[in-house]
Design goal:
Layout: E1 7-12, E2 16-23, E3 26-33, H1 39-54, E4 63-68, H2 70-77, E5 83-88, H3 94-97, E6 122-125, E7 128-129, E8 135-137, H4 141-154, E9 158-162, H5 171-181, E10 188-190, H6 191-194, H7 200-230, E11 237-240, E12 246-248, H8 249-254, H9 262-277, E13 282-288, E14 293-299, E15 302-303, E16 305-306, E17 309-311, E18 323-325, E19 329-330, E20 333-335, E21 341-345, E22 351-357, H10 376-382, H11 400-415, H12 419-444, E23 453-457, H13 461-472, E24 476-479, H14 486-493, E25 497-507, H15 513-532, E26 539-549, E27 556-560, H16 569-585, E28 594-605, E29 620-621, E30 627-632, E31 637-645, E32 653-656, E33 659-662, E34 667-670, E35 674-678, E36 684-688
Parallel strand pairs: 1-4, 4-11, 5-6, 5-9, 9-10, 13-23, 23-24, 29-32, 31-33
Antiparallel strand pairs: 1-2, 2-3, 7-8, 11-12, 13-14, 14-15, 14-20, 16-19, 17-18, 21-22, 24-36, 25-28, 26-27, 26-28, 30-31, 32-35, 33-34, 35-36
Helix pairs in contact: 1-7, 2-7, 4-5, 9-14, 10-11, 10-12, 11-12, 12-13
Length: 693
């Protein structure tokens, strides 16, 4: 194996930082507590652990792939830079007015996220481009000159520029950037480069978010590269973006909004790789870490994708209640339910959990690092799911007494419940929240969640996966090798990829093949340029157009062949749209005009495909002398459960529930209705007893 084949994945989460290194089929991994003050330090600490285990030095690394929740956290916590927003006259309040859609139509006390940039930091400028890209009013350059002086004097740290219809013609935004940059030494983001899509609210909000997190992310990425270089790692560093591809650090620093959801994207890629390995055309990715739980549908070995998503929702599961970000993203639903999510009792006497998290500082009460409020990890410990002496490979000693005390103070005493009953209440609420999220996500995509095989990973998911399957009616669940650091492993399998897109509203009846080919060539050039920053391998492309009937408020994706189009292709595209529309809504509509709205080119290299293996559905019963009481939801009492070391279980071994399979980064809880069967590659298959031959 050459140096170029040695890749290391590093995923910064809200509680743990995960490191994964794979050499000649052997995985070396580590989990260390995230360092909020210096996030790069946790990466350095984790790298040192896996380097020592692998017996190599930093100079042997060929590539470091990194994903992080730092951009997401900055948006949620409002901890970004002091940012100014320069926009078209008359559009100053777009990001505050939002759209006419109300996620709770009759709620008079509706709470929406406040804009990232307050009104006094938004500056309108004269100048107007129409929807077809023609200039209606010249840009007021003199006003921009004066504004540049004002912004410099006010001490803004970043600037976002968003003009109406800049996706059709970026000339005004680019000229405004030139004028401001001549007097300002701060990063300036323009919407035509960050998100060249129609719908000004989403586009403006996205460019504001990019500018808001840009100084912080640029500083962090620079520190990370410097620290790695000082330690002797001269390999390139690439980032995984929200769409699941790899981009250079330089691109990430310029467009950090593309890093929002980068860690979860790695998890979805990991799950898709497992689905392909076991030939599962319908899978449900379930990633539960220390702060959040993420659920993603995977069909035909590919995660669902979207062009927009929301962060910082004020109402759980409610579309329209968050901050829209219009960038290509792997589509998933995310809730504040991780191992560190804090439990509490609301005014109506109901147990609640999350979204507030104990994180790594101070962490759950059982960590004995100063935390006094109960987290989900505390409840799992009290219920016997965790071994207090072998958590995180024995690196963190857990205190059952501290966990029980925190649960009693916050939940048990208020509801007159014993410690175990209160702990079960906490866990049951969390599991029910996650099952509801999975159902909502599946229904929104027109799917039946019970028809999927679950793929569970992340430090906390294997603890809850079997119970979640019970609630969702799912018959089988896979816990892959390295599940505790699944997202970091997913980074190692991610392609170099980039999706370029642009809105260009055009009627199908006015189809112009020559103009279309020119626009697609520009998109292909842009996308491939980003991919070529990381690889010289052959590039594959997918061309997608988002279409609708005129007058509709949203579009559907229609895949098209990657080739030059001719005028006669209009019929082919119309038929493809009608077939796709019927697939989504049951039948196509006759009569209305059909429109193109947004064009997309996704370019990427093709990572090697895993060897396909079949599921092993039965095996030889395994036995263990080690047992401990673990709370059983079916009986409402603790049952003596066998404890198995994952490394000691050979392929074909069958573990009858109730039992627990332990490893350094996580533990797999096998509830009474399930058995576990070890697959040929070490993956754990949870299967309902009734399904066993």
């Amino acid at each position: 194996m050459g140096r170029s084949d040695i890749r290391l994945g590093a995923d910064i989460g809200g509680t743990f930082t995960d490191i994964a290194l794979e050499i000649e089929g052997t995985l070396h991994s580590a989990k260390v507590l995230t360092n909020y003050a210096a996030p790069e330090q946790a990466i350095i600490d984790g790298i040192e652990i896996v380097m020592e285990a692998a017996g190599i030095g930093l100079a042997d690394l060929g590539l470091v792939i990194h994903g992080t929740t730092l951009a997401t956290n900055a948006l949620i916590q409002r901890s970004g830079a002091r940012t100014a927003f320069v926009t078209t006259e008359g559009y100053r309040d777009v990001i505050e007015m939002r759209t006419e859609s109300r996620f709770a139509q009759y709620d008079l006390n509706l709470v929406l996220p406040t804009p990232l940039i307050p009104r006094e930091a938004r500056f309108p400028v004269r100048g107007r481009i129409d929807a077809h890209g023609a200039e209606l009013q010249a840009l007021d350059e003199a006003a921009l000159e004066r504004l540049a002086d004002d912004l410099a004097a006010a001490g803004f740290e970043a600037v976002a520029i968003g003009f109406i219809h800049a996706y059709a013609n970026a000339a005004h935004e680019k000229r405004a950037r030139e004028i401001l940059a001549a007097k300002l030494d701060v990063p300036i983001s323009i919407s035509a480069e960050v998100s060249p899509q129609m719908r000004e609210f989403e586009r403006f909000n996205t460019v504001c978010a990019n500018a808001y997190v840009r100084p912080q992310m640029a500083s962090y990425l620079s520190r990370l590269q410097s620290r790695l270089a000082e330690m002797g790692a001269d390999c390139p560093v690439f980032m995984i973006h929200s769409g699941g591809g790899l981009i250079s650090v330089e691109t990430a620093a310029e467009f950090p909004v593309r890093l929002v959801e980068s860690g979860p994207a790695g998890g979805a890629i990991f799950a898709a790789d497992i689905a392909r390995r076991f030939d599962l055309t319908r899978a449900l990715s379930y990633d539960m870490g220390g702060t959040t739980a993420k659920i993603c549908l995977i069909e035909d070995f590919t995660p669902h994708t979207a062009r927009t998503f929301e962060v910082a929702r004020t109402a759980r599961f409610a579309k329209g209640s968050g901050m829209p970000i219009s960038i290509p993203v792997i589509e998933m639903i995310e809730i504040g339910a991780g191992g560190g999510s804090l439990a509490w009792v609301d005014a109506m006497g109901r147990i609640q959990a999350g979204p507030e998290s104990a994180g790594s500082e101070p962490g759950p009460a059982c960590y004995q690092r100063g935390g006094t409020r109960p987290a989900i990890t505390d409840a799992d410990l009290v219920l016997g799911k965790l071994d207090p002496d072998n958590f995180a490979g024995g690196k963190i000693k857990l205190s059952v007494d501290e966990a029980a005390g925190a649960i009693a103070r916050a939940v048990g005493d208020r509801l007159s419940l014993a410690d175990e009953a209160a702990a079960f209440g906490i866990v049951e609420v969390v599991d029910e929240n996650m099952s509801n999220a999975a159902r909502v996500h599946a229904v929104e995509n027109g799917k039946d969640v019970s028809e999927n095989v679950m793929i569970a990973f992340g430090g906390a998911a294997p603890l809850h996966a079997a119970r979640l399957c019970e609630k969702l009616g799912i018959e089988r669940c896979l816990i892959p090798t390295g599940a505790g650091v699944g997202s970091a492993i997913g980074f190692l399998k991610a392609p170099f990829g980039y999706e370029a897109l642009v809105s260009n509203v055009m009627a199908l009846s006015a189809f112009d093949a020559e103009a279309l080919n020119s626009m697609l060539d520009d998109l292909k050039t842009t996308a491939e340029a980003f991919v070529r920053e990381g690889t010289s391998a052959p590039i594959e492309r997918e061309v997608t157009v988002y279409m609708r009937y005129r007058g509709q408020g949203w579009e559907i994706p229609v895949p098209l062949p990657d080739r030059a189009f001719i005028d006669a292709d209009r019929t082919m595209i119309e038929e493809a749209f009608r077939a796709r529309y019927a697939q989504f809504f049951g039948r196509a509509i006759e009569g209305p005009e059909i429109e193109f709205v947004t064009w997309s080119v996704n370019a990427h290299d093709k990572p090697p495909e895993p060897d396909t293996v079949g599921l092993t559905l039965d095996g030889e019963a395994a036995t263990s002398e080690t047992r401990r009481p673990v709370f059983d939801p079916a009986t409402g009492a603790a049952l003596e459960s066998a404890i198995f070391e994952r490394a000691a279980l050979a392929p074909g071994a069958r573990v009858e529930g109730p039992a627990i399979i332990v490893e350094s980064e996580t533990s797999t809880v096998i509830t009474t209705p399930f058995d576990a069967i070890i697959q040929t590659d070490g993956t754990i298959l949870l299967t309902r007893k009734a399904r066993r031959p």
